[in-house]
Design goal:
single chain, mainly beta, OB fold (Dihydrolipoamide Acetyltransferase, E2P), 5-stranded mixed barrel, 7 strands, globular
Amino acid sequence: MELKDIKPNQGNIDVVVTVIRKDSPRTFEKFGKKGKVCNVVVKDGTGQVTLTLWNDDIDLVNEGDTIHVQNGWCSEYRNEKQLSTGKFGKIEVIKGAVDRNTVFTNDPAMLAGGAPDQEENDEDAEEPEEASEEEFIE
């Protein structure tokens, strides 16, 4: 499915989109329960739409990610389509904008291939003793 084909009050939406903007999350309380909500703007080759993220999905998605919205729901707010996972949908990150295992640093030791904050002066360190051949003979 493509974004241009989505209509308000439509369910069972299955799209792959790229996140181009993520707003700051907001907290709310409804019926005595607290939650978080956040809007992101997503696009594909046919257009863009606002996707509403709820609670744990907020931390899952980042700008630049390619995501798969499965079993989504489209509503309309102020004459604009808004996509959501609703009660039964889910979001899967297909390709993260940044490898989540990437470490960013400006530590000169790490940039030079060494360990971070490694002491240059290891004179006091003891050298391990070499094992003699006799120790391995039974």
